[in-house]
Amino acid sequence: EFVAQYALHEVPKRLEQHEQFKKGNIQQAFKDVFIGVDNDLEGEDGIEPLYSGCTACVALVRGKEIYLSNAGDSRAVLACRSGPGDKIHGDDGDGATNNDGKNAHNDCTYTALDLTVDQNPDSPGEQERIEKMGGFVSPPPEEGLSARVWLDSGFSQIGLAMSRSLGDHAVKTVGVIAEPVATKYELREEDDFLIIATDGVWEFLSSQEAVDIVSNDLNKGKGSSLACQHLIEAAAAKWHQHEGDYRDDITALVIQLKELWE
């Protein structure tokens, strides 16, 4: 929790101040900032980064471009309008609203597009790096569960379920890195909303299922906050169904892209 709070405050602040950011080299700035934040964890009072850490999935929208920086198994998913459904328009040409002032949509259908790739220990390139540096990767114990990174061949020490993170310094010596995968995507007219969520959402819900849950609310004009709440509730219900009282962290954001400029 402390690592996540530190990253939450430091990443945007450092990014805005970074020289490469000011020059427009956003992807390099993201990489430098993530690595710098990870390195500086050791000097922070009250933070123990040896056995604690967090994922980080950050989206930066600039005009028609969206920059993604991802370290870990959180995920950013874009909802692309693929069926009828532009906003409902009134006589004055403005989007019709429901009684709480939110824009309503006319039964749009959406296709999910993953903007980031989950960095799992057994992902191509990730497992090779870990094993080259002396780490060990155990396969998922069953379908739907995660591979893990270990310090020993007996799979008894650590067992981290991602190949990149901020913190988790105990496994940094065996190939778990803080360097993010930084990418850029050109937004289109049909790109309506973005979901950013931790693995607790994606463990039992596909990207398309998450988009369907959110769009069901947005089509009814219920707004991003309620749609996000229902997504979290759906993910929690799946955890209860599969794992009983145990569940992983479930954190999610829903961003209606066109509302950013209103």
Describe the protein's topology.
Elements: H1 2-17, H2 19-22, H3 26-40, E1 53-54, E2 56-62, E3 65-71, E4 75-81, E5 110-114, H4 126-132, E6 136-138, E7 148-150, E8 158-160, E9 166-167, E10 181-186, E11 191-197, H5 199-202, H6 207-219, H7 224-243, E12 252-256
Antiparallel strand pairs: 1-9, 2-3, 3-10, 4-5, 4-11, 6-7, 7-8, 11-12
Account of the protein in words:
The protein contains 7 helices and 12 strands. The chain has 262 residues and is α+β, with helices and mostly antiparallel strands. The strands form 4 sheets. The chain has a 4-stranded antiparallel sheet with strand order 5-4-11-12. A hairpin with a 7-residue loop joins strand 7 and strand 8. The relative contact order is 0.16. About 7% of the residues have low confidence.
> In what range is the share of β-strand residues?
15-25%
Shape: globular
Tell me the helix content. Answer: 25-40%
Rg calculated over all Cα atoms: 20 Å
* Amino-to-carboxy terminus distance: 33 Å
Uncertain runs are: 86-104
**Physical arrangement of strands within the biggest beta sheet:** 5-4-11-12
Q: Main beta sheet, described?
A: 4 strands, antiparallel
Record field, number of beta strands: 12
Number of helices: 7
The SSE order reads HHHEEEEEHEEEEEEHHHE
Average pLDDT confidence is 90
**Class of secondary structure makeup:** alpha+beta
